């Protein structure tokens, strides 16, 4: 029996830090990412691929601000849908090409996914989700004054615009995704955390101005789709305590209780590793199944138990 895994890749797997966010660069980076995902498929996994979109949504927000006097800006839920569409296209194309090269006959499909959130979620009053490029403190404060945007310092890497990030509650298209998986289709879903929607007083879906954390949305999908494993691919091989300090310590395997203790002690940065650990803890607690965090270049070794950080019940 194949194992079903939800694999979450970051927005920086498409745009590397300091690199121009051109379509050409994105295709090149995604092809590299897709090769690691193809390795996983060759290891007899079925996979649902989720991805970040913070840099891409941030770029669209900037483009819209520049052109706002010519073309009316779209709301953030529509921008989320736009990034799901074009990133899904890029991932599906590059993965399909690599699978064909390896003589693997599998269909790949992107499902533009809506994620239900609570209209009264406190996240709407306290924006925390970083989007777009990094700025100096001086530039960030200038833009905050001029445009009314909110900026926060992001894990020692610079200042970024932040937007509301409500907790994901349900995936509208989960049954469609299940049907595709059962028909041997590799699915890309929940891109950028999904399109945030509320159910209004008339019982209708309505998009809202927010960006859902893609790791939390990916954990939700993993639970709803009964995945055997939840995997987050990031820029580090393992999770560390006291990251980038002389007493830095790598974590190989940790239990949910240990992870919660480390969270309480403040070991993980809010804009970086914290949501990843929290998402893994949520999945493991609710399912009793393992979660894994590692660098995509080390994915094969991590799946063989040679590296990565595994979170266990």
Automatic annotation (TrEMBL):
- GO cellular component terms given for this protein: cytosol
Query: Which keywords does this Swiss-Prot/TrEMBL entry list?
Result: Kinase, Transferase
Nucleotidyltransferase listed as a keyword: no
Whether Lyase counts among this entry's keywords is no
Q: Name one GO molecular function term.
A: carbamate kinase activity
Superkingdom to which the source organism belongs: Bacteria
Domain Aspartate/glutamate/uridylate kinase residues, every copy:
3-295
Q: Which GO terms describe its biological process?
A: L-arginine deiminase pathway
Q: Which Gene3D superfamilies match?
A: Acetylglutamate kinase-like
According to its UniProt record, which protein family does this protein belong to? Belongs to the carbamate kinase family.
Q: Which PANTHER family match?
A: CARBAMATE KINASE (PTHR30409), CARBAMATE KINASE-RELATED (PTHR30409:SF1)
What is the name of the protein in this document?
Carbamate kinase
